[in-house]
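User: Please fill in residues for this 190-position structure.
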């Protein structure tokens, strides 16, 4: 892109069209050792690959938790194999993202987050849908809600440096609504 050739995309126009979080994610996912490519097609691809599956998992949880009037509790439900698997992946991802950010490697950190969100939306949610759709509120359904809630709350904190607006929206709705004594912003948490 070049200003004199007339093919430059101005930042304000790009933010207005695709959103600041999409642009930030696109830049974090890019290899800093190579030319940084930007275009609306690339931005839409990044959005489809990562942000939409994340948002869909969040909306799935919010929709069904509201229908069932589910609220988080301090009790630990008996987790199924799928629950333990995704929580294990979550803890591994948090450790890896932290390690990569401490060594200033945002690209590897974002790759790990993309893999986790893919596992959460493609494998955990698809494999657990029937658990959320049950009419009765049994221990299995409680474990599914508890697991997905834990994943999404943790993701909101881990994603804050990358996609601050989306992570703030998730945090305010998932954490602050349930616990007003929690820090006022996701950016005030560890």
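Assistant: Residues filled in for all 190 positions:
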């Amino acid at each position: 892109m070049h200003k004199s050739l007339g093919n430059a995309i101005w930042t304000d126009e790009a933010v207005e069209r695709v959103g600041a979080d999409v642009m930030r994610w696109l830049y974090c996912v890019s290899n800093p050792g190579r030319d940084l490519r930007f275009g609306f097609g690339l931005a839409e691809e990044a959005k489809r690959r990562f942000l939409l599956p994340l948002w869909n998992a969040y909306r799935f949880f919010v929709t069904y938790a509201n229908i069932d009037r589910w609220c988080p509790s301090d009790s630990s439900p008996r987790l199924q194999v799928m629950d333990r698997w995704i929580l294990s992946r979550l803890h591994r991802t948090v450790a890896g993202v932290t390690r990569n950010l401490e060594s200033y490697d945002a690209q590897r950190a974002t790759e790990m987050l993309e893999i986790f969100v893919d596992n959460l939306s493609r494998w955990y949610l698809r494999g657990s849908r029937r658990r959320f759709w049950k009419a009765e509120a049994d221990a299995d359904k409680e474990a599914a809600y508890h697991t997905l809630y834990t994943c999404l709350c943790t993701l909101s904190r881990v994603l804050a440096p990358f996609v601050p607006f989306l992570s703030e929206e998730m945090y305010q709705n998932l954490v602050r609504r349930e616990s007003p004594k929690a820090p006022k912003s996701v950016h005030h948490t560890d």
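For context: The chain has a mean pLDDT of 86.
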